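Example record

One chain of 75 residues, shown exactly as stored in the release files.
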Amino acid sequence: MTEDDDLLEDPSRLKDHDWIEVNKLRRAYEDGGDDALVRAWWDLYRKDLDQFSRIACAFDPDHMRRIRDAGKKQH
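Predicted structure tokens for this chain:
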């Protein structure tokens, strides 16, 4: 892990292949800013929702909990 991993609040659930996607997200942001990062997140979302969820949760676990809880309230 690098200093940049400080952005990850909880990387404990990430699998080895998730780190490849984390690095793709970082490169997208470095190369193209916010717009490129949003496109990279959407690409990951469409490609693999489970992986998207693990990575998003590693960056912001509280946000993902709020999404999960909101889904439970609808059922």
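Notes: The chain has one domain: 15-74.
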